[in-house]
């Protein structure tokens, strides 16, 4: 029986081509995957750098502390009751920096110290407009809703103890506030700080919109003027007869 030596070559040729085809596509797919993975990595690195730039060093600030809440809890054990304390402290410099912290310990001074250290790690910047805030804002945390509204000079801080502590430490002197939903001091304090973190100065808004500060302030004043000059309902003959 005669065999054809060229037969195996003709059979292996297409198989080699089939096996080599994916190999030629692997570098392109690998390059696409590498580029796709590099973009999220660059974005995450930029966010880390941005957060590091916006981080506040508490050592450079003259921070003050104010105790907002101190709770005592008891645990019943075989030998009796063990007491522990939880403290809520607000820290700030009165010049646009404020933060709140929560701490627990078996002794009151230790709980307050832990809460103060936690508050220094959570400092935020608050843009101020003189003695008040730039614009109205609503802070939310849990069931708490805290409404903050600018007020004219001399109004003072119309707020409860928890909200007042945060605003005083932030440096706000004239503001109108209202708490809705709950009176839990922890939620109210965190909602107030969340609302203050949403504030933006006219310079920041103008920079984000690629406009001049005068344009932002002018459009705001124009909008306020149109809202204040809304037409009032005219008196009807029936109302005049009633008078």
TrEMBL record:
Q: Name one GO cellular component term.
A: small ribosomal subunit
The UniProt annotation puts the region (Disordered) at: 1-42, 210-243
Q: Which GO terms describe its molecular function?
A: rRNA binding; structural constituent of ribosome
Q: Its Gene Ontology biological processes?
A: ribosome biogenesis; translation
Alphabetically list the UniProt keywords.
Ribonucleoprotein, Ribosomal protein, RNA-binding, rRNA-binding
Stored Pfam families: Ribosomal_S5 (PF00333), Ribosomal_S5_C (PF03719)
InterPro entries according to UniProt: Ribosomal_Su5_D2-typ_SF, Ribosomal_uS5, Ribosomal_uS5_bac-type, Ribosomal_uS5_C, Ribosomal_uS5_N, Ribosomal_uS5_N_CS, Ribsml_uS5_D2-typ_fold_subgr
Asked if the record carries the keyword Ribonucleoprotein, the reply is yes
Limits of the S5 DRBM domain: 63-126
Q: How does it assemble?
A: Part of the 30S ribosomal subunit. Contacts proteins S4 and S8.
- UniProt comment concerning the protein's domains: The N-terminal domain interacts with the head of the 30S subunit; the C-terminal domain interacts with the body and contacts protein S4. The interaction surface between S4 and S5 is involved in control of translational fidelity.
Identify its protein family.
Belongs to the universal ribosomal protein uS5 family.
Q: Which protein are we looking at?
A: Small ribosomal subunit protein uS5
Provenance organism: Sumerlaea chitinivorans
């Amino acid at each position: 029986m005669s065999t054809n030596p060229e037969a195996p070559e003709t059979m292996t040729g297409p198989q080699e081509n089939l096996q080599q085809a994916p190999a030629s596509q692997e570098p392109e797919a690998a390059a696409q995957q590498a580029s796709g993975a590099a973009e999220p990595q660059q974005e995450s690195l930029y966010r880390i750098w941005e957060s590091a730039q916006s981080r506040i060093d508490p050592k450079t600030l003259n921070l003050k502390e104010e105790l907002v809440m101190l709770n005592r809890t008891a645990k019943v054990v075989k030998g009796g009751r063990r007491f522990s304390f939880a403290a809520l402290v607000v820290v700030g410099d009165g010049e646009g920096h404020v933060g709140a912290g929560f701490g627990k310990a078996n002794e009151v001074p230790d709980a307050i110290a832990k809460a103060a250290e936690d508050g220094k790690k959570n400092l935020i910047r608050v843009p101020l407009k003189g003695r008040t805030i730039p614009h109205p804002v609503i802070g939310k945390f849990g069931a708490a809703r805290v409404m903050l509204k600018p007020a004219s000079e001399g109004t003072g801080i119309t707020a409860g103890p928890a909200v007042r502590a945060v605003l005083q430490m932030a440096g706000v002197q004239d503001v109108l506030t209202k708490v809705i939903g709950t009176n839990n001091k922890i939620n109210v304090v965190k909602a107030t700080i969340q609302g203050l973190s949403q504030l933006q100065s006219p310079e920041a808004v103008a920079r984000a919109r690629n406009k001049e500060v005068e344009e932002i302030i002018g459009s705001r004043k124009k909008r306020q003027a149109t809202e204040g000059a809304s037409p009032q309902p005219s008196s009807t003959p029936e109302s005049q007869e009633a008078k």
